[in-house]
């Protein structure tokens, strides 16, 4: 081969070698893994308790005076109206006292008239100089005494009338009689409760709640109350009162839930079930398949979105639920973690992310729906 032909062949070979050197070797494919994007949410814990319907306020009615019960025209379960007679005492003593007070008032009025006439006569004589000063002063004091006795007699008459009126026990509230404590013929003392009335101005659902539940934000919880034998009958309520001391036997605390517009079917004494939804602050829930270990500590694989490599990070587990793990810390919203294919991964390994599988709108609605 001539020298020009040999030079051309060498130039062509050099060009081919240069072209081959400029090509980059193909990058290896990453390990296919399933991934999820971390999202923050609120964790709801539902607690169901059994209780009963009670009146928001109970009123115990009692006589202001003592005596023998003549009649009690109401029984347990009767509905009463404001002003209705609940019981009566024998009024003979009070009637006699009223008659005596009326007689004393009549006598006091006569004494006042006599004393006034005597004073007026002494006053005229004093002006004419025909009487002494002591007699005038005596007539004045007699008139003042008679007037005071008249006022006392009037007060005694009013007191006697009141005591006669107290022989009838009337209710000043509307409601239902829940308890009777006396029977006709019994002698009662002043202030002794005769009947108990549940007022009509509200109803409570009363539950015995363990102390562990009280540690949560129970006052802010949403409470749904349903009848135990008719779950379709329901009402919403909020915590109105929590007992400051535990029951000595059950070691539970009485919690009264004020019901908002309770239906008529929720009668006093009905057994109800209260569903308390306790909501925590923002937390992170991940699929249970994403959890692995770093030594003895729980951990997850974090995907670097720029380099498509993985790294292992320790997390703190709040609780385990079927199919998911609730974390208290360790992940931030927006981070990408491996949820499938965590076996045989190692730090810095390149991965290929498979498309995320998100729940359908129907599944999301079903997950967020509150059970009855």
What is this structure's SSE topology?
Elements: H1 3-22, E1 31-37, E2 40-55, E3 58-62, E4 67-71, E5 79-80, E6 85-89, H2 92-128, H3 133-165, E7 168-170, E8 175-180, E9 187-188, E10 193-199, E11 203-209, H4 211-214, E12 222-227, E13 230-242, E14 253-260, E15 271-287, E16 292-294, E17 297-304, E18 309-314, E19 316-321, E20 324-329, E21 336-340, E22 351-354, H5 361-368
Parallel strand pairs: 1-22
Antiparallel strand pairs: 1-21, 2-11, 2-15, 3-10, 4-6, 4-9, 5-8, 6-7, 8-10, 11-14, 12-13, 12-15, 13-14, 15-20, 16-17, 17-18, 17-21, 19-20
List keywords for this structure.
372 residues, alpha+beta, conserved putative lor/sdh protein from methanococcus maripaludis s2 fold, Helix Hairpins, six-stranded mixed β-sheet, six-stranded antiparallel barrel, 22 strands, 40% strand, elongated, disordered C terminus, coiled coil
Q: Could you explain the architecture of this structure?
A:
This protein is α+β, with helices and mostly antiparallel strands. Among the domains are: 31-42 and 282-368, conserved putative lor/sdh protein from methanococcus maripaludis s2 fold (Beta Barrel); 91-165, Helix Hairpins, CATH 1.10.287. 27% of the residues lie in helices and 40% in strands. The protein has helices at 3-22, 92-128, 133-165, 211-214, 361-368; strands at 31-37, 40-55, 58-62, 67-71, 79-80, 85-89, 168-170, 175-180, 187-188, 193-199, 203-209, 222-227, 230-242, 253-260, 271-287, 292-294, 297-304, 309-314, 316-321, 324-329, 336-340, 351-354. The strands form four sheets. Strands 1, 16, 17, 18, 21 and 22 form a six-stranded mixed beta sheet that branches. Strands 2-11-14-13-12-15 form a six-stranded antiparallel β-barrel. The chain has a four-stranded antiparallel beta sheet with strand order 3-10-8-5, with no helix packed on it. A hairpin with a 4-residue loop joins strand 17 and strand 18 (309-314). Helix 2 (92-128) packs antiparallel against helix 3. Mean pLDDT is 83; it is low at 21-27 and 360-372.
């Amino acid at each position: 081969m001539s020298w020009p032909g040999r030079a051309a062949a060498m130039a062509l070979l050099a060009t081919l070698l240069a072209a081959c050197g400029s090509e980059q070797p193909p990058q290896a494919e990453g390990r296919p893994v399933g991934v999820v994007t971390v999202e923050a949410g609120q964790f709801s814990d539902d607690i169901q308790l059994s209780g009963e319907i009670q009146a928001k306020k109970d009123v115990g009615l009692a006589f202001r005076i003592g005596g023998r019960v003549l009649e009690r025209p109401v029984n347990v379960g009767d509905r009463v109206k404001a002003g209705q007679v609940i019981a009566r005492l024998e009024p003979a003593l009070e009637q006699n006292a009223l008659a005596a007070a009326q007689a004393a008032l009549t006598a006091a009025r006569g004494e006042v008239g006599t004393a006034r006439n005597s004073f007026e006569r002494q006053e005229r004589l004093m002006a004419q100089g025909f009487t002494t000063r002591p007699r005038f002063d005596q007539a004045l004091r007699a008139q003042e005494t008679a007037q005071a006795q008249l006022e006392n007699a009037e007060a005694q008459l009013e007191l006697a009338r009141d005591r006669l009126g107290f022989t009838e026990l009337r209710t000043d509230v509307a409601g239902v009689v829940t308890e009777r404590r006396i029977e006709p013929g019994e002698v009662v003392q002043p202030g002794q409760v005769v009947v108990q009335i549940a007022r009509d101005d509200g109803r409570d659902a009363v539950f015995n709640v363990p102390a562990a539940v009280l540690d949560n934000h129970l006052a802010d919880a949403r409470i749904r109350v349903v009848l135990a034998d008719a779950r379709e009958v329901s009402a919403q309520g909020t915590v109105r009162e929590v007992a400051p001391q535990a029951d000595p036997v059950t070691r539970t605390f009485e919690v009264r839930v004020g019901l908002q517009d309770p239906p008529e079917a929720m009668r006093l004494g009905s057994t109800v079930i209260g569903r308390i939804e306790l909501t925590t602050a923002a937390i992170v829930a991940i699929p249970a398949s994403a959890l692995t270990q770093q030594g003895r500590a729980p951990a997850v694989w974090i995907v670097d979105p720029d380099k498509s490599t993985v790294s292992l990070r320790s997390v703190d587990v709040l609780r385990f639920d079927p199919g998911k793990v609730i974390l208290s810390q360790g992940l931030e919203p927006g981070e990408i973690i491996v949820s499938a294919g965590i076996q045989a991964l190692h730090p810095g390994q390149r991965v290929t992310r498979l498309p995320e599988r998100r729940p359908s709108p129907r599944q999301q609605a079903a997950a967020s729906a509150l059970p009855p």
